[in-house]
Amino acid sequence: MQNSDLLQVAQNYGCPLYVYDADKIVSQYNRLVKAFNKIENFKVHYAVKALSNVNILKLLKNEGCGLDTVSIEEVLLGLHAGFDPSEIMYTPNGVSFEEIERVAQMGVQINIDNLSILEHFGAKYPTVPVCIRVNPHVMAGGNANISVGHIDSKFGISIHQMPHILRIVENTKMHINGIHMHTGSDILDVEVFLYAAEILFESAKQFKTLDFIDFGSGFKVPYKKGDIETDIEEFGRKLSKRFLAFEKEYGRSLTLVFEPGKFLVSEAGSFLAKVNVVKQTTSTVFAGVDTGFNHLIRPMLYGAEHHIENISNIKGKERYYSVVGYICETDTFATNRRISEIHEGDILNFKNAGAYCFSMASNYNSRTKPAEVLWRNGAAVLIRERETFEDILRNQVEIDI
Predict the structure, then answer these.
(1) Residue 100 and residue 177: Cα distance in Å, rounded?
(2) pLDDT tens digit sequence for 156-200
(3) pTM of this prediction?
(4) 124, 272, 348, 386 — which has fewest CB within 10 A?
(5) Per its UniProt record, what Gene3D superfamilies does this chain match (predicted)?
(6) Is 305 annotated as ligand-binding?
(7) Which CATH architecture has domain 266-386?
(8) For this structure, is 65 an active site residue?
(9) Is domain 22-264 annotated with CATH 3.20.20.10?
(10) Which pLDDT tens digit goes with each residue over 125-137?
(11) Is 356 annotated as a binding residue?
(12) Which of 153-167, 217-231, 257-271, 277-291 has the lowest mean pLDDT?
């Protein structure tokens, strides 16, 4: 997508607006597959939580991708998009046993990360294949909120509880067909990931009926010019070599699975916002835009940095701005950031807005959610309508007061 294309899309559909580049999503998928081309049985499960628009799911389905889901609603979205239940992995945390049962009855691959649930499920459904999510106790990730493999994490069954897992499996005679881990997001150090992989291999040796090993994901993507990212090609070479060696040790072939979300869709996304005001204070120049953390919460929640371009004045002289939203609390997207000179009415492009942006949007301040557009084959297609005030009222039940 060129800046001129984005300006035209903003004019046609209004702001704020999410725009996704289909070609970038497909190229990221193919890049990951190519990095592991020495693995005969390799599967990518897209993490639906990153961006759950059904059209994005269909796009990835056409490439041969499966799905990683964390809720029954995400499972239903996948089925609606045409995925076969066997192509969907369900990895809940802290949900009711009834929800897990309902998903299992759909024929979806179940992934359990709790000893009590494992025992309960094994006793009731011993013939249903189950994957086990272990916690490798490896601290990884770019922020405490997205580091999920450390010792105090609520996710996964501790590797130190392996004797308990084996006891449950033996007592229930349940069928374990996969082993899984996910250490966190924004992992840069390949060696940390490989270290955690060794722990997973050791855990896998305890089970003789595995069909796959799922290494989760968490690859770091660049958020600004010159930013560092996970070297997928290097990682592919190193883990492929180790995985092939483990297959020989294990005695038969296995499927290697990854569950990327951000890696596939983050860089494909642009979030377009219009500048409402430019406000000079005693020490700061604010650019106030027609959105807030109700639409893009990552900078406030994670301290994430999204590169911002003024696509209305891309070659203008750069000045320092603090870009802020219209919410009734401090919602700062950028502080003292060098951006091409901004005027009221300009369109700003927040880069890397494909992952965990719309999917974490809310109606805070009773604001409506933006529209979503897919840029495909050189044209923009609306894939979600902008909410209206009627949508705000839709499920409210008014009573006589």
Answers:
(1) 17
(2) 999 999 999 999 999 999 999 999 998 765 666 788 888 889 999
(3) 0.93
(4) 124
(5) Alanine racemase, Lyase, Ornithine Decarboxylase, Chain A, domain 1
(6) no
(7) Beta Barrel (2.40)
(8) no
(9) yes
(10) 999 999 999 998 8
(11) yes
(12) 217-231
